[in-house]
Design goal:
The protein has about 100 residues and is of the alpha+beta class. The chain is about 40% helix and about 30% strand.
Length: about 100
């Protein structure tokens, strides 16, 4: 009986660990896809090139005001479906970071 209980506890522990790992992976994936480093800006096309994804992201033109190459931005979808850009860290802040 004790052996069966020990096996059951071990299996539940493994299942819980796998669930937490999956959730953590999803959170990491979400952070990596929502934060982007700006490589270039195309104001006429109302888009910017993301360093990590090697893809252009289209936004409304006024969203790009104040955004420069090297800035780290977060792209969120508004209720109406349009993207909103928030600058997480400017290029100057990134270069002067003590983390490097």
């Amino acid at each position: 009986m004790t052996k069966r209980m020990a096996i059951a506890v071990a299996l539940l522990s493994c299942a819980a660990t796998a669930t937490v790992a999956t959730a953590a992976g999803s959170l990491t994936d979400l952070m990596q896809t929502s934060r982007m480093t700006v490589a270039a800006i195309d104001l006429t096309g109302e888009r910017f090139l993301c360093v990590e994804h090697h893809a252009w992201t289209t936004v409304s033109g006024n969203e790009l005001s104040g955004v420069t190459s090297g800035d780290i931005v977060r792209v969120e979808r508004r209720a109406d479906g349009r993207p909103h850009i928030a600058v997480v860290r400017t290029a100057a802040e990134e270069l002067s970071s003590p983390e490097r």
